[in-house]
Amino acid sequence: MGISLRMSDQGPVAVIAGYKFPWKLPPPSDLDAIFANVSSAVMCKHPSWNSQVDNSNDHILKAYAIEQGLCIPGPQQPTYLATTGTMDVLDIAILKDIGLTMTIEALHELSSDYLPVILE
């Protein structure tokens, strides 16, 4: 799902919401297509964006982000609250060529174990 925003002080900005299976990362050619001037929210874990744990696929995404000049902010608050009491940041933003200061925040507004996030 995606939208395109027209900003008065810069060109259009595409916003795409997506899901990444925890055990599979798309090939770099797919990442190139997805992140060409795109801001994307994905489920991904790495301590760099405030997650408790990481895995090899997410190291690949982090290395790709560094190589491509992408910024990956994650909220300070957990976005997943398990019934077992564990919690973690699962939702992040991936930004490229956004000439604005952006923050991402988990919203405690729904009665779900997954919290919605807002990117401002």
Describe the protein in words:
By secondary structure, the chain is α+β, with helices and mostly antiparallel strands. The chain has a single domain, classed as 4-Layer Sandwich (Deoxyribonuclease I, Chain A). It has helices spanning 28-34, 56-68, and strands at 2-6, 12-17, 38-43, 80-81, 87-88, 91-94, 104-106, 117-119. A four-stranded mixed sheet has the order 1-2-3-6, with no helix packed on it. Strands 4-5 form a two-stranded antiparallel sheet. A two-stranded antiparallel sheet has the order 7-8. A hairpin with a 5-residue loop joins strand 1 and strand 2. It is globular. The two termini are 19 Å apart.
Tag the structure with descriptive keywords.
120 residues; Deoxyribonuclease I, Chain A; alpha+beta; globular
Task: Extract low-pLDDT stretches.
Answer: none
What is the CATH domain class? Alpha Beta
Characterize the largest beta sheet: strand count, sense, and whether it forms a barrel.
4 strands, mixed
Strand content: 25-35%
List the helices and strands and how they pair.
Blueprint: E1 2-6, E2 12-17, H1 28-34, E3 38-43, H2 56-68, E4 80-81, E5 87-88, E6 91-94, E7 104-106, E8 117-119
Parallel strand pairs: 2-3
Antiparallel strand pairs: 1-2, 3-6, 4-5, 7-8
Summarize the structure.
The protein is an alpha+beta fold and 120 residues long.
